[in-house]
């Protein structure tokens, strides 16, 4: 499961589709609708948010909006569209790690998109998050 802190505009089609599916899985885990993945580290920041179910819907809202921008057909009925929510934090170190991870994925799947990725300075993050100083998040599984 990968719940990207980077803006979904940087994901290729496979990455965006995976992010939608994995976000919906995360939503079901947070709602208690599944027995698997309950302790997955990617869920920690949502579990630590003021309202995990609201925050996962806010996360999925941005995935949905990016999919709609690309004329993909995702079911809006699976989430509540959430706008203007107080952000949760993500460290700069985490963003660096995710950017490098995404570069490796794009190099294999979509090299034409790899060339279009901005530098870290110009990188947009998922609107649910706000950047703070720090190393890679403790919950990250480094591969």
Task: Kindly describe this structure.
- With 143 residues, this protein is mainly α.
- It has one domain (8-132).
- It has five helices and two strands.
- It has helices at residues 13-30, 44-47, 52-69, 92-109, 111-114; strands at 88-91, 129-132.
- A two-stranded parallel sheet has the order 1-2.
Identify the notable features of this structure and list them briefly.
143 residues; mainly alpha; two-stranded parallel sheet; 2 strands
Overall structural domain count: 1
- Report the C-alpha radius of gyration, rounded: 14 Å
* Helical run tally: 5
How many β-strands, per DSSP? 2
Question: What fraction strand?
Answer: 5-15%
Gross morphology is: globular
Average residue-wise pLDDT? 94
Low-confidence regions: none
Distance between the termini: 13 Å
Order of helices and strands: HHHEHHE
Q: Helix content range of the residues, please?
A: 40-55%
Structural category is mainly alpha
Biggest β-sheet, characterized?
A: 2 strands, parallel
- Strand numbers in spatial order across the main sheet: 1-2
């Amino acid at each position: 499961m990968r719940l990207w802190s980077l803006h979904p505009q940087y994901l290729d089609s496979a990455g965006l589709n995976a992010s939608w599916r994995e976000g919906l899985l995360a939503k079901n885990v947070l709602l208690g609708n599944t027995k698997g993945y309950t302790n997955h580290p990617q869920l920690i920041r949502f579990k630590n948010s003021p309202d995990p179910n609201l925050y996962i819907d806010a996360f999925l809202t941005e995935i949905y909006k990016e999919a709609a921008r690309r004329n993909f057909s995702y079911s809006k009925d699976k989430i509540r569209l959430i706008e203007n929510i107080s952000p949760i934090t993500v460290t700069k170190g985490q963003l660096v790690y995710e950017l490098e991870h995404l570069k490796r994925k794009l190099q294999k799947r979509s090299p034409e998109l790899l060339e279009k990725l901005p530098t870290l300075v110009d990188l947009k993050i998922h609107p649910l998050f706000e950047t703070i100083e720090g190393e890679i998040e403790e919950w990250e599984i480094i591969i």
